[in-house]
Amino acid sequence: MKRMTMVVALLLATGCTWSNSLYHARRLSRAAERAERENRPFEAGTYWGQAATKADTAYARSPDGKGGAEALWLRGHALARLNDCASATPLLERAWLVMPEAEWRDELLLDLGRCRDRVGDSRSLAAFMPLLDSPDSAVRLEAHARAGRAMVTLERWDEALATLVGVPGNPARVDRSIALAAVNRTDDAIREVEPLLVAQDTTVTWERLLGSLADRDAADAVSLLDRLVAFRSPNAPSARLLSAWQLAVALGKSVPPTLRTSLLKEAARPVGVPAASQARVRLAEYQLATADSPDSLTALSSAWDALTDGDPTAGLVLGRYRRLIVDLKREADSIVAGAPQGDLIFFHQAEIARDSLASPQTASWFLRRIEPG
After folding, report:
1. Which of 95, 132, 147, 282 could pair with 73 in a Cys bridge, judged by C-beta atoms 3.0 to 4.6 Å apart?
2. What ranges do the domains of the chain cover?
């Protein structure tokens, strides 16, 4: 009898420990949220870390049922708030799978959608869709804004426009404008962002809209770019912003070659600007695409010093291209058509020109030197 009493006491103690861990995980989560609302980020981070630990303990002791699912969610919720989405996402997914209609479902789906959104996972839309009709107005509004953006990313234009109706904020305006431009309602697209243009708002991610317009109508994109460039002091765009805007237009599918080259050269001018580095590399790659022989490749690469000077990022990429060009030129000068293994070498060099340098005309030059038969 005494032994049985001890066993029962031990089981009760274990259950209490599990219950206490889950209780403390909830309490610490609430404390972290309160600290966030009161603008005490350091304390909030400490509470989130403690909540994650307590939730992990609760799950380890009782992984099944509603309690186990809640422990998974509380740990995933805390890790998501700590910006550790790589660890949070699988926990949130498992909790949703086990308890898809729990009372904390809305918070879970927001965490999951935000984390997927952060890494560019298109499945974020699946997390936001059930929240479009949430009874919580704040949840519903965020879900509409984030789902609309996901639809824009997926090029589901009509759905995006319907989802973003009435959603306030500059990001939603830009998303609506992108969707309107995509369905050939360019005038409506510009009208949508007109207040931001009038306000000369440089905090807007204008390159998203510029790129979308440039994919469909280069003239409209250039017109918007001109308006952005004309922003007056003190809102004049920085070199970093201007380079990013010019690059976005230059990469548009509808932009003609001459305009693309001009925009890339302008975007490449600033030093120490990420978009300028990208523009230099893109300019060199665009030149590679127009080269038609090893000699023309060599001439191009010898003029790249201006693109790599003071830019280690562009220098690294173009340095690799230069080494490939030197190898191609050496093979072209040393191998005679019809020589043993010559055709095989020419074919290999053609593949390098086509696949590694994206220079199809140079690839054709090598293929023409392979003897028929």
Report:
1. 95
2. 12-118, 287-373
Separation of alpha carbons 245 and 237, rounded Å:
10
Q: For domain 12-118, say whether CATH 2.60.40 is its number.
A: no
Helix (H, G, I), strand (E, B) or coil at 154: coil
Q: Collapse the DSSP code of 279 into the 3-class scheme (helix H, G, I; strand E, B; otherwise coil) and give the result.
A: helix
Q: How far apart are CA 76 and CA 89, in angstroms?
A: 7
Pair of tokens at residue 35:
């600290």
Structure confidence by residue, pLDDT tens digits, 33-60: 999 999 999 999 999 999 999 999 988 8
Per-residue pLDDT tens over the stretch 120-173:
888 999 999 999 999 999 999 999 999 999 999 999 999 999 999 999 999 999
CA distance 294 to 285: 15
The crossing angle, in degrees rounded to 10, of helices 342-355 and 360-367 is 170
Q: How far apart are CA 150 and CA 112, in angstroms?
A: 14
pTM: 0.76
Long-range own/partner contacts, residues 257-264 (CB < 8 A, 24 or more apart): 259/218, 259/222, 260/286, 261/286
Q: How many CA atoms lie within 13 A of 151 on its CB side?
A: 23
* Residues sharing a CB contact under 8 Å with residue 239, sequence separation 6 or more, in sequence order: 269, 270, 273, 276
Q: So what's the pLDDT on residue 262?
A: 95
Omega of the bond leading into 274 within 30 degrees of 0 (cis): no
Rounded CA-CA distance 208/318 in Å is: 27
Distance CA 67, CA 175 (A): 40
d(CA 59, CA 81): 19
Query: 286, 261 in Cβ contact below 8 A?
Result: yes
42-58 b/e with 16+ CB inside 10 Å = b? eebbebbbbbbbbbbbb
